[in-house]
Amino acid sequence: MPDPVGPRRASVLRRPAEMLAAARGWHARGQSIGLVPTMGALHRGHLSLVRRARTGNDVVVVSVFVNPLQFGPGEDFARYPRQPEQDLELLGAEGVDAVYMPGVDDMYPAQATTRVRVAGLDGVLEGAHRPGHFEGVATVVTKLFNAVRPDRAYFGRKDAQQAALITRMACDLDTGIDVVVLPTVREPDGLALSSRNAYLSPEQRAAAPCLHRALRAADDCYLAGERDPARLQAVMSALLDGEPQADPDYAVAVDPDDFESPGRLALLAVRFGKVRLIDNHLLGEPWPVSR
Ligand code: AMP
Fold it and tell me: Which residues pair with 192 in a beta bridge?
């Protein structure tokens, strides 16, 4: 029988002041708030964060905002997938209380020049390959934290350097927000879910699981006793070199705290034509989803 009230829709808040007023209301009633920041084009990876937020908070807010500040010139800001109606339907079905969908002008009025920078972590790997990216991320997440006033905020380990940077920032700025970092959700062939997977041609999509295979190969070596980061890196590079569609930006094994000195966090960034994918695995740790 059809549902007489129709599918549940989360309420949509579009302005920072409106969001802040709602957050103050929830807190005044003693309710805790969980925030899941996203850029939309939602997939099962995002929904895994939403479900975890649902279990630990009275109110769940998901932000959907394609943040221009974190895209460099020539990157994919203009063509980044946007599907707000589909996102709202998915979030309604997940029982999300509110979706914060600000416009670019609401977030960055012309007079707003403040930027947030997390020194150190923002200058290596993703930070080095995408200058300004992490300043854009840190600035938007600070603004989201200020408008939503969450008790907890949920991020994916797929973006490991971003998660580390936000964890550091939340601590450095005395936000009191508990930053929860959750495992990467993958396709059955190992490819990490990403909104950018939609850009891949069929040939590129067929080649893309090489990121996961490279991480697996490094992990197998690690589990067999290899501890030399240079050798672990060589294993990943050899596997990626065998895939003609793949053009690696980096394949490294670094310390998970500084993302610079050698260590056991295997990190990859690989281009398939214009599409750039990232993935990672902390070597020696169990794989959260089926290998
Ligand atoms: P995005 O919309 O790509 O900015 O991602 C929003 C949040 O979802 C970030 O914290 C990501 O790390 C997380 N996320 C993206 N892909 C996945 C995935 N495959 N598994 C788990 N979390 C993810």
Answer: 186
49 touches 154 (CB < 8 A) = yes
CA nearest ligand 1 atom 13, residue: 156
Token representation of residue 289: 């989803």
Is residue 46 annotated as a catalytic residue, yes or no? yes
> 93 CA to middle of ligand 1, Å?
19
Q: Round the CA-based radius of gyration of the chain to a whole number and report it.
A: 19
pLDDT in tens, 59-83: 999 999 999 999 999 999 999 999 9
DSSP secondary structure letter of residue 290: -
| Residue 69 CB neighbours (<10 A) | 18
Question: Is there a contact between 284 and 223 (Cβ–Cβ < 8 Å)?
Answer: yes
Contact 63 CB / ligand 1 (< 6 Å): no
* Residues 6+ positions from 284 with CB-CB distance below 8 Å: 219, 222, 223, 264
Residue 51 banded pLDDT, cuts 50, 70, 90: very high
pTM: 0.96
Question: Which ligand 1 atom minimizes the distance to the CA of 49?
Answer: 22
Backbone angles phi, psi at 189, to 5 degrees: -85, 10
Q: How far apart are CA 244 and CA 242, in angstroms?
A: 6
Tokens of 141: 């997440």
Starting at the earlier edge strand, list the strands of the sheet with 98-100: 11-13, 98-100, 59-64, 33-38, 152-156, 178-182
Kindly give the pairing relationship between strand 59-64 and strand 33-38: parallel
Question: Residues 211-235: pLDDT tens digits?
Answer: 999 999 999 999 999 999 999 999 9
Q: Which of 5, 279, 282 is CA-nearest to residue 125? A: 279
